[in-house]
Amino acid sequence: MKFKHAQPCPYSDWEILVENPDNVRVVDETETELTDPYTAFKQYTVEVLGNGSLDVVFKYGSGCPYGTEERVTIRFYVGVPEGNVTSNQSAPTPEEVLNVTEVNVTGTVTAVDEVSRVVVVDNYTIEIRGKWTGPDGLTYNWREMLALLKQGESVEILASEEGSLKADVIIIDGKRFTRG
To answer: From CA 59, how far away is CA 16, in angstroms rounded?
Structure first.
């Protein structure tokens, strides 16, 4: 878990825990260990009972000015995944998964900067990188995606935070564009 501010937190009741187990049972867990002022490590051993998921949650200390919680949902598949799931050939390591926070930004585009390859939506600066697939199945590059984002128009962006916000899904006028 990567923290937004240095630890130890003056609000000492912060914790890392799991919630909403679906076909997953926590068998064991280690104590939370601060490895540096911005990183904590906690390992869970789980028994996967079938296709399911588990939320790993960092609950901020009561009174913390940085927010209330951060969470990531980890999905488990046994055999063939159910539903519309794309196989990920280069799965991230557990450490990479736990260090990513997802942010859903819905609002008005206030700026598009092609030089920095970013879009600003209601004070959130979000990087637009790589190749994208549109609802029509066509592939778009980052420059074409930025051209679709118009200042003053509404947009919904699902972004992952890994030091900065990077767009993973962009929804424009109900049309879904996915990175990768």
So the answer is: 6
Within a 10 A sphere around the Cβ of 70, how many other Cβ atoms?
21
| Secondary structure of residue 120 in the 3-state scheme | strand
**Across 158-173, average pLDDT:** 88
Element (H, E) at 71: strand 69-76
143-178 per-residue burial string, b: 16 or more CB within 10 A, e: under 16: eebbebbeeeeebebbbbbeeebbbbbbbbeeeebb
Strand partners, 73: 55
What's the mean pLDDT in 61-83?
Answer: 75
pTM: 0.47
**Is the backbone of residue 35 left (phi > 0), alpha (psi -120 to 50) or beta?**
alpha
- What's the CA gap between 180 and 178, in Å, rounded? 6
Structure tokens, 58: 């960092």
Is the bond preceding residue 81 a cis peptide, omega within 30 degrees? no
Candidates 121, 143, 120; CA nearest to 132 is 143
Say if residues 78 and 50 touch (Cβ distance below 8 Å): yes
79 has a pLDDT exceeding 70: no
**Strands 15-29 vs 44-59: parallel, antiparallel or unpaired:** antiparallel
pLDDT at 29 over 50: yes
Mean pLDDT of 104-125: 91
